[in-house]
């Protein structure tokens, strides 16, 4: 029974991954009629990657305060898109998507450090942060804490 369950789960995962695989196209990216105008392009500049429907910006080289992190994302016009800090749940999903390919992230120039989320902690003055290398979600002081930044669009 256990072997059958594992096999079934593996097959469902493979089918899901196959249906989610990006279409290969040698030509410039084309937005199909049923896709939103802000659809993710097939080819992104180095350091920009996708996870789900989100585009992720490269992680900053420097650790900054939460206010600086928010300003960094909100003022960015990279790729002609609007940017924001990811939520804690988006960071967790991102880590699940890339946890087995951390070297790919490093090859894209990513610093796998602690990054800010837009999700407030359970105590006033505390904000969730996530260590991208280990996938650990912890807290940082939202006024004096320092963490790196990645933005999502």
Relevant terms:
two-stranded antiparallel ribbon; alpha+beta; 5 strands; 4 helices; single chain; disordered N terminus; 3-stranded antiparallel β-sheet; 153 residues
Measure the end-to-end span: 43 Å
Helicity level, as a percent range?
25-40%
The major beta sheet can be summarized as: 3 strands, antiparallel
Shape: globular
Approximate strand percentage = 15-25%
Number of strands: 5
Our Rg estimate from Cα atoms comes to: 17 Å
| Number of alpha- plus pi-helical segments | 4
Q: Give the mean pLDDT.
A: 78
Strands of the widest sheet, in order across it, are 3-4-5
Q: Note poorly predicted spans.
A: 1-40
Helix and strand element order? HEEHHHEEE
Structural class: alpha+beta
Signal peptide: 1-20
Keywords: Signal
Protein name: DUF1566 domain-containing protein
Note down, in words, how this protein is organized.
It contains 4 helices and 5 strands, in the order αββαααβββ. With 153 residues, it is an alpha+beta fold. The chain is globular, with a radius of gyration of 17 Å. The protein starts with a helix and ends in a 12-residue tail after the last strand. The model is unreliable at 1-40 (pLDDT under 50).
Fold blueprint:
Elements: H1 2-20, E1 49-51, E2 54-56, H2 66-75, H3 88-98, H4 102-107, E3 114-120, E4 126-131, E5 136-141
Antiparallel strand pairs: 1-2, 3-4, 4-5
In short:
The protein is of the alpha+beta class and 153 residues long. The protein has 4 helices and 5 strands, in the order H-E-E-H-H-H-E-E-E.
């Amino acid at each position: 029974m256990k072997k059958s369950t594992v096999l079934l789960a593996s097959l469902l995962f493979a089918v899901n991954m196959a249906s989610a695989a990006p279409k290969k196209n040698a030509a410039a990216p084309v937005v199909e009629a049923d896709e939103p105008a802000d659809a993710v392009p097939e080819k992104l500049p180095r350091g920009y990657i996708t996870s789900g429907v989100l585009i992720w910006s490269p992680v900053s080289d420097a650790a900054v305060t939460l206010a600086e992190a928010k300003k960094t994302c909100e003022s960015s016009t990279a790729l002609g898109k609007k940017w924001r800090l990811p939520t804690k749940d988006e960071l967790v999903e991102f880590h699940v998507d890339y946890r087995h390919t951390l070297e790919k992230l490093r090859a894209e120039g990513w610093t796998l450090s602690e990054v800010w989320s837009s999700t407030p902690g359970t105590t006033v003055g505390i904000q969730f942060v996530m260590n991208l290398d280990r996938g650990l979600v912890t807290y940082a002081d939202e006024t004096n804490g320092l963490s790196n930044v990645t933005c999502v669009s």
